[in-house]
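Good morning N.,

You mentioned wanting to compare the apo and holo forms, so I went ahead and generated the holo version with EPU. This is what I fed in:
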Amino acid sequence: MNDLLYVNGGNPLRGDITVRGAKNFVSKAMVAALLGETPSVLRNVPQIRDVAVVRGLLELHGVRVDADDAAGTLHLDPSDVEIAHVADIDAHAGSSRIPILFCGPLLHRLGEAFIPDLGGCRIGDRPINYHLDILRQFGAVVEKRPQGIYLSAPKRLQGTKIALPYPSVGATEQLLLTAVRADGITELAGAAIEPEIMDLINVLQKMGAIISVDTDRVIRIEGVDRLEGYQHTALSDRIEAASWASAALATGGDIYVRGATQPEMTTFLNTFRKVGGEFVVDDEGIRFYHPGGDLRSIQLETDVHPGFMTDWQQPLVVALTQAKGLSIVHETVYENRFGFVDALVGMGATIQVYKECLGGRPCRFGQRNFYHSAVISGPTPLSAADIEVPDLRGGFSHLIAALTAKGTSQVRGISLIDRGYEHFMDKLTALGAEFSRD
Ligand code: EPU
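and this is what came out, ligand included:
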């Protein structure tokens, strides 16, 4: 795909689009299929690059994958799981963070696993220390090698008791995917309880796992000897839905997001309403619109579920440049998720970033040298600019900014957006956006 988009902004986005399954669930459910002795079927799968990457990784490990892209269905047959060649896996280095989640399933199936250097968005250090600590506690041996990390399980993995220092989504998934087939009972305190994790638990339970979730972030798993394949329809992508909602707000538009679901978006919807956006929920989706008049500034803090998601922050910040007064946004999940605002400032936004924890309770980054709070003063008209997409969500925010700004912007590096936004150009066309590719 060509990487440069000319966007002629300044017009409200209006129309009807569809979101399918959540990227951050689908990729994990695909990995879970490795644990089954029989094939799995996953539905509502979006055609995005992260799905293609995980598919490639599964195929390297002998999983047969058949896709019906239009229907959004994946058939995953793990009957012939095998060790992949290090060089082949290494070719995937840098393209995704998902390989780390292959460890538990591969250790159960094959007794060993190899993980290349991990990619993902550049939004902080994004270490994997929690993951490796968890795997070691189950009894895996972890060796760092030049191209990546080699793991082996000399004996069957053993259930264990773990307390996470922070409710990490990936580490919770790592634990689930490893504990379900480990010997005995595993107890995780301080677990992440994002809806995508709950849907992964649904999948694992369908496969034969025994998992209970307490109200206090404690997850308890009784290991079983054998898991079967599953049939499951993925929950909707609440990040994509919120991204389009923010685009509607920033451009003064009206977007019906078919497939968007209310229960996973309660916190976003409250915030959307406080900023001055309106929405209508029906059985098939949610209509998000700007009712006219001024948008209102807000004070916002990102957090783990049920808080305001970090991934909702970047698209919403673009809309906040159009709100009246001073908005304060405190990012508490990633230390470095405000890099994208430089481009907005270049387009005329008034945004100042701070190292202090502003407007909320102190977070892990307060005593360290990270610009993780932002003050946005609005409303400011945005003007067209030449901008470079920094990461997936920051990139979508740049796209919203270009659609909000009067004149023609050049947005470079748009192929990054393909990682997590299905057919976003077709959707832009459906919403009446004016753009062309170089
Ligand atoms: N962390 C550690 N050590 C670890 C793992 C995480 O210190 O071993 C820290 C991270 O550095 C971060 C915090 O814990 O400060 C939270 O990270 P988490 O593990 O929860 O994030 P993740 O599993 O790597 C997933 C999503 C992200 C989303 C976060 C938070 C996937 C593939 N990615 O990442 O999605 O922002 O959870 O909800 O599921 C995106 O979709 O654009 C995206 C970045």
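Residues 23-24, 97, 121, 124-131, 166, 168-171, 192, 239, 309-311, 333-334, 392-393, 420 surround EPU (CB under 6 Å).

Happy to go through it together on a call whenever suits you.

Best,
F.
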